[in-house]
């Protein structure tokens, strides 16, 4: 969200690269229909910066061009989900057209977060945004026209069963997958009421849709695990690189400690992974062949020191926001 200058994103990407984690960072402009003010801090003082969406888009282009397309850290472009009223604004059209062309020329994902109730069809008809490198989050209460656009363009869906939008409406994830639309499992984290734990989201996705259909057989464990692994890879257009254990793919692997009371007896491992396991059960994490965590301990980082720095940053943020 900090795209008034490239430095915040570059600092973030440098830290992620140092940790060894894989990430696609989505950056993009704000709505062109209102002013946007950022603060630049120097010790205890700050300056306010008013930035235009056009300037933000130029920052995004510089970030895309500075980041390797085949590295562990990559850039995607994001756009707001525009309402039917906003779409008729020429500035919205111009900004969307430039973002769409930039994404296609540079071969990066175009992401929108918050689609619902006809917004996919409206954004497609007026702005022509979507193709098979588009990833649309939430997608609740979709209309038949929305679903037709997903099928005709190849756009993918990030289904976030733990998100607040999934409380106010339902993503028809099961029906979309049956019709051939790629649906991945997401978390909409980080936020005060949900976590990054994909195991929790597998379980929640099952209950979410099983309750809707009143059928426990909906979204069986193998399908949930596929949504959390290959589904995510397909949604990111990275299925040739990650998402499954195959020769020639990047070695992104987790090892789960299954010898625990809540995962016992040792039968039906898919059922236990999708219904009983949680993120704290991951013993070892490997990204691109590099071991980052072994026996629940970070290999070359002091977790306590990281938590201490995060706490200090949190208190500083609250103070600057006037919420201390």
Tell me the layout of helices and strands.
Blueprint: H1 7-19, E1 23-27, E2 37-42, E3 45-50, H2 53-66, E4 73-79, H3 84-87, H4 90-106, E5 110-116, H5 119-127, E6 134-140, H6 144-153, E7 156-159, H7 165-168, H8 173-178, E8 183-185, H9 198-213, H10 221-228, H11 230-235, E9 253-256, H12 269-275, E10 282-287, E11 290-294, E12 297-298, H13 303-320
Helix pairs in contact: 2-4, 5-6, 9-10, 10-12
Unreliable sequence segments = none
Mean pLDDT: 92
Number of strands: 12
Count of helix runs: 13
Looking at the structure, the CATH topology of the largest domain is TIM Barrel
**Rg on CA atoms, Å:** 21 Å
N→C terminal distance: 23 Å
Strand content: 15-25%
Q: What characterizes the major β-sheet? A: 6 strands, parallel
As for the number of domains, it is 2
Structural class: alpha/beta
CATH architecture of the largest domain: Alpha-Beta Barrel
Order of strands, widest sheet? 1-4-5-6-7-8
Broad CATH class of the largest domain: Alpha Beta
């Amino acid at each position: 969200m900090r795209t008034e200058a490239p430095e915040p994103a570059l600092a973030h990407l440098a830290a992620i690269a140092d940790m060894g984690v894989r990430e696609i960072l989505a950056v993009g402009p704000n709505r062109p229909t209102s002013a946007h003010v950022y603060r630049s801090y120097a010790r205890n003082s700050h300056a306010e910066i008013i930035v235009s969406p056009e300037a933000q888009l130029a920052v995004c282009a510089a970030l895309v061009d500075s980041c390797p397309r085949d590295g562990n850290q990559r850039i995607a472009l994001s756009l707001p989900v525009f309402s039917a009223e906003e779409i008729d604004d020429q500035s919205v059209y111009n900004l969307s057209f430039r973002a769409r062309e930039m994404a296609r020329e540079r071969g990066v994902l175009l992401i929108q977060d918050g689609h619902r109730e006809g917004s996919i069809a409206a954004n497609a008809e007026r702005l022509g945004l979507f193709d098979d490198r588009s990833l649309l989050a939430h997608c609740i209460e979709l209309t038949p026209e929305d679903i037709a656009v997903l099928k005709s363009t190849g756009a993918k869906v990030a289904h976030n069963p733990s998100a607040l939008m999934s409380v106010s409406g339902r993503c028809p994830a099961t029906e979309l997958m049956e019709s051939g639309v790629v649906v991945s499992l997401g978390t909409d984290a980080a936020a005060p009421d949900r976590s990054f734990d994909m195991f929790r989201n597998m379980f929640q996705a099952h209950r979410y849709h099983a309750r809707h259909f009143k059928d426990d057989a909906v979204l069986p464990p193998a399908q949930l695990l596929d949504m959390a692994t290959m589904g995510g890879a397909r949604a990111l257009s990275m299925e040739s690189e990650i998402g499954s254990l195959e020769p020639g793919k990047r070695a992104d692997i987790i090892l789960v400690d299954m010898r625990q009371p809540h995962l016992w007896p040792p039968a039906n491992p898919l059922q236990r992974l999708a219904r009983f396991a949680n993120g704290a059960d991951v013993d070892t994490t490997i990204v691109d062949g590099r071991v980052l965590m072994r026996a629940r301990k970070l290999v070359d980082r002091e977790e306590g020191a990281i938590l201490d720095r995060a706490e200090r940053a949190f208190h500083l943020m609250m103070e600057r926001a006037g919420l201390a």
